[in-house]
Amino acid sequence: MKIFIIGSTSYQDKMGKYKQMLEREGHSVRMPLFDDSTKDELQICLTNIESIREADEVHVFWDQRSMGTAFDFGAAMALNKKTKLVYYNRKTFLNVMKWYSDPALYLEERHNIPDTF
To answer: Is residue 77 pLDDT above 90, yes or no?
Structure first.
């Protein structure tokens, strides 16, 4: 299967390890162009869109802040690609606001969060 991984530069190491695991399973895997690419922002977006178009699935690592990952995910949706959320950063300021406002919700949600990659 052809898999394209999208995600923030901050998860480049995790994504690389995940890529190696998928390749050991026999998949063809591509990674996105990151901010340190020699291409400009538009070329990075266009290259990633083409990689998404060629992929059977798009696997996602998200920090809940990356505009580039959100853009790539939107491209995957527009191209009707199957997606898989592999890893996300559960620590958000939204959680701080929710849990500060409702301590009972904090206790409930903290005990029901599954482990991720």
So the answer is: yes
Q: DSSP string spanning 31-67?
A: ----TTSSS-HHHHHHHHHHHHHH-SEEEEEE-S--H
pLDDT of residue 52: 97
Domain map of the chain by residue range?
Answer: 2-89
Query: Beta strand 2-7 with 28-30: parallel, antiparallel or unpaired?
Result: parallel
- Match domain 2-89 to its CATH number in 3.40.50.2000, 3.40.50.10140, 3.50.50.60, 3.40.640.10: 3.40.50.10140
Which residue has 């997606």 as its token pair?
Answer: 83
- Region 24-32 average pLDDT: 95
Q: How far apart are CA 111 and CA 67, in angstroms?
A: 29
Return the higher-pLDDT residue of 35 and 31.
31
Task: Please tell me the distance from the alpha carbon of residue 115 to that of residue 109, in angstroms, as a whole number.
Answer: 13
CB atoms closer than 10 angstroms to residue 77? 12
Q: What is the pTM of this model?
A: 0.79
